[in-house]
Design brief:
By secondary structure, the protein is an alpha/beta fold. The chain folds into two domains: 151 residues, Nucleotidyltransferase, domain 5 (2-Layer Sandwich); 191 residues, Nucleotidyltransferase, domain 5, CATH 3.30.420.40. It contains 13 helices and twelve strands. A hairpin with a 2-residue loop joins strand 8 and strand 9. It catalyses: butanoate + ATP = butanoyl phosphate + ADP.
Length: 368
Amino acid sequence: MNTYRILVINPGSTSTKLSMFENEKCLFTQDVFHDSSVLKEFLTINDQLPYRMEVVRSFLKDGAIDLHGVDAIVGRGGGCYSVTGGVYRIDDCLIEDTRMARGGLYHSSMLGVQMAAELNREYGGIMLMMDPPVVDELCDLARVTGVDGVYRTAVSHALNLKATARKHAASIGRRYEDCNFIVCHIDGGISVTAHQKGRMIDGNDAGGGEGPFTPTRMGSMAVTDVLRLLDSKTREEFKSLCSQTGGFGSYYGTSNSDYIHELVKAGDKKAVRIWRAMIYQVIKYIGSMSTVLKGEVDGILLTGGLLRFPDVEEQIKESCQWIAPVTAYPGEFEQEAMALGALRVLRGEEEARTYTGKPVWDGFEDDA
């Protein structure tokens, strides 16, 4: 069996996670934290590229990694036009659309394909992207809103959601494409999604602020409440509540879940109420996804950083175990998922897709 060397690059809002794989084996992983005071020096996310590339070069040096002859470089996808799930070859069109955030998602993940291209120019290897946040496999009914011409969009933790679903399907001796799952990523952001036979057909728009409130996000609110809030907040303050300072941040001035959970453990009534309310909202979305799947649910899968707290799983099980078995996968599997996706392509088990430069869905045929 051939030995393939795969570099995985995963830029996040405040860190860059890098891993080197030989086939399925992870040789070296490093998650480098970027202080917000440093990142604020850059006017745009794209301006961070040289700084982040220095992080990659330090990673290679510290790990004594020679990338010459590398077989694949996988960069986490960002805000290109929406795509269906899968592994994609990185080309000039994908790089440019991601750099320009054509799909509307402006997030640090947009640096992943750019960093892969930088290294490819120096070391070669195929360049790949897998399951970016803008994966759109929504069923038609999930797109419709009550305002003509306004449609729901799909932005989620697609990479980890689909990786968790594949991992669980394998653990029960089945294929992801043959199962129906409700998969929840629960961390600083929260995605609750319905997966039907390998397609993520519905879920909250986590990137747009829809769904449960989270450690950093205010979550869904009645429009009338939003309008009242706008009277007392600037546009920038309101945007911050949607993505950075809402949720725990609004109540406590910090999104540090460890700090909040210590208050919960100490019996602080307010902290207990807020913590349990967040999980309560996750439970409500799980219930709604079960109806989308018409009750035919093979499993409810929980993943993400907040699963390090056992009571999160316990509270969800208490309310949802009757729907389907609940299984927790604490943490995330993004690095592993990207490496395994590249490995399938290198072994000829899966063909890498070509990015079209167009959104996967752009309205109904009968739209005026």
